[in-house]
From TrEMBL:
UniProt domain Aldehyde dehydrogenase: residue ranges: 20-484
NCBIfam families xrefs: aldehy_Rv0768
Family annotation (CDD domains): ALDH_CddD-AldA-like
Pfam families: Aldedh (PF00171)
Similarity remark: Belongs to the aldehyde dehydrogenase family.
Lineage top rank: taxon: Bacteria
InterPro entries linked to this entry: Ald_DH/histidinol_DH, Ald_DH_C, Ald_DH_CS_GLU, Ald_DH_N, Aldehyde_dehydrogenase_Rv0768, Aldehyde_DH_dom
Name under which the protein is recorded: Aldehyde dehydrogenase
Keywords, comma-separated and alphabetical: Oxidoreductase
GO molecular function, one term: oxidoreductase activity, acting on the aldehyde or oxo group of donors, NAD or NADP as acceptor
Oxidoreductase listed as a keyword: yes
């Protein structure tokens, strides 16, 4: 059956695809402003039922202990996504505004393929460890460490890489034996809702194990953070919302796992290929219109080469005009909404007000009368105290900042409330590695290395988050530890 045949998605609650009690809300193509169709609009009552279903499935079925069933369910979901890959690709391009070329990587095929890591990990994981016999306090005791599922996981996700983020929560949470309620962003409800259709039609995942609740109301997601039946909230989104989730979770002291914003630095040392490094920084900042949390949006270059660096970055960015995401050559598509476009424009205006200048770009392209587009923009003439250097813009905007040597470059990179990612370019790998070791961030690219993969943990220091997604660390976030002592 084709996905979303009637252009209306449903909620998945307790194994059934159902309408939302709040009616429906529209999902919009950000490149054309066309309404693609509608999604079920959940109310607090719907969320209450979804949480109840997840709780029952955890407490009353063998899901949490049946590794074979979990592995089978994850592999079936992966196969169903592969079988529907072309439909999912078109949906991702039209709903997310994701450039087609990114759907063969992190926007679709990458996360589908990464589900193998979750299934393989569940299969090979050592769920119990025998620590042997000891005599603490004179009592001869056999000690065992058991790792087991936390319980009900509430997953709250943003719109920028919806498949990647939905699956990076769903995959490990299910592999570890939890049940889940997924609440996606209102801007991309279909990317999550299709998972519901595929789970119901193509997998043996039991009723209640996965629940998917789309809603136009952010407050419906907040119920997950507050509800005592939810054991853990796994959240990806902005730092401000992350604070609200953490505060809401405090009342029931649930585990709160946070993947938040970033303002990452791309450091170019004085012995690096300046032109090559600055072009790469410009390319990275333009990809998917800069809507990536780990994108390096501060280009930190040697002061003596500042003008040359600005010119190199602007030369590359000026060639990356925002374009139609259906076109295989497009790198910079639209931003998600008019709200985001206007927010980005506000940051661009602030750069000029603070004395900066645009080396290229600076606003919406004149040749597009539909869609939410912003030209890739290089901002020059500001230092690390400027608003555009401190706050996350989430648009195709690169701010070029001068440094006075390696120590100063490290100081600037770390002078940020965020600590998600970073890049170091140098002609000398050991020197670059030494700088990488001094950055207070969760992932570092050294001379072009790629840190994104299923077995690599991803996450932030400081206000970029708490915990790690993906890799073994990302799987173990969804586990409790139990120490069992048996008199020997
Ligand atoms: P957002 O914080 O506005 O929303 C994220 C999700 O939280 C949405 O599903 C939203 O409905 C929900 N939400 C909003 N208010 C809530 C509340 N009070 N309680 C519970 N849920 C609530 O973020 P966004 O605009 O959708 O996404 C962009 C942000 O996400 C950026 O800051 C970006 O850096 C961040 N992000 C981080 C990562 C990462 O892994 N670190 C990855 C992607 C995006």
């Amino acid at each position: 059956m084709p996905l979303l045949g009637d252009r209306e998605s449903r909620l998945l609650i307790d194994g059934k695809l159902v309408a939302g009690s709040g009616g429906t809300f529209a999902t919009v193509n950000p490149a054309t402003e066309e309404v693609l169709g509608v999604a079920a609009d959940a109310t607090p009552d719907d969320m209450d039922q979804a949480i109840g279903a997840a709780r029952r499935a955890f407490d009353e079925t063998d899901w949490s202990t049946n590794v074979e069933l979990r592995v089978r369910g994850i592999r079936q979901l992966q196969q169903a996504m592969r079988d529907h890959a072309e439909e999912l690709r078109e949906l991702t391009i039209s709903e997310v505004g994701a450039p087609r070329m990114l759907t063969s990587a992190a926007q679709l095929e990458g996360p589908i393929s990464d589900l193998s890591f979750c299934a393989d990990t569940a299969e090979s994981y050592q769920w119990r460890t025998d620590l042997g016999i000891a005599s603490p306090m004179g009592m001869k005791t056999r000690r065992t460490i058991a790792r087991e599922a936390i319980g009900v996981v509430g997953a709250i996700t943003p719109w920028n890489f919806p498949h990647q983020i939905n699956l990076a929560k769903l995959g490990p949470a299910l592999a570890a034996g939890n049940t889940i309620v997924l609440k996606p962003a209102p801007d991309t409800p279909w990317a999550a809702a299709v998972l519901g259709e595929l789970i119901v039609e193509h997998t043996d995942i039991p009723a209640g194990v996965v629940n998917i609740v789309t809603s136009s109301d952010h407050g419906v997601g907040a119920l997950l953070s507050r509800d005592p039946r939810v054991d853990m909230v796994s959240f990806t989104g902005s730092t401000n919302t992350g604070r609200a989730v953490m505060a809401d979770g405090a009342a029931t002291l649930k585990k709160v796992f946070l993947e938040l914003g970033g303002k990452s630095a791309f450091l170019v040392l004085d012995d690096a290929d300046l032109g090559g490094a600055c072009s790469m920084a410009a390319f990275t900042a333009s990809m998917h219109a800069g809507q990536g949390c780990a994108i390096t949006t501060r280009l930190v270059v040697p002061r003596a080469k500042y003008d040359e660096a600005v010119e190199a970055a602007a030369g590359t960015m000026a060639g990356l005009k925002p374009g139609d995401p259906t076109n295989p050559g497009t790198i910079c598509g639209p931003v998600i909404s008019a709200l985001q476009r206007d927010r980005i424009q506000g940051y661009l205006d602030s750069a000029i007000a603070e004395g900066g200048r645009f080396a290229c770009g600076g606003g919406s392209p004149a040749d597009r009368d539909k869609g939410f587009f912003i030209e890739p923009t290089v901002i020059a003439g500001l230092d690390n105290d400027a608003k555009v250097a401190r706050e996350e813009i989430f648009g195709p905007v690169l701010t070029v900042i001068a440094h006075d040597g390696d120590d100063d470059a490290v100081r600037i990179a770390n002078d940020s409330p965020y600590g998600l990612s970073g890049t170091v370019f140098s002609g000398d790998d050991a020197r670059a590695q030494g700088i990488a070791d001094r950055l207070r961030v969760g992932t570092v690219n050294v001379n072009g290395g790629v840190w994104y993969s299923a077995d690599m943990p991803f996450g932030g220091y400081k206000q970029s988050g708490i915990g790690r997604e993906m890799g073994l660390a990302g799987f173990e976030e969804y586990l409790e530890t139990k120490a069992i002592a048996t008199l020997a």
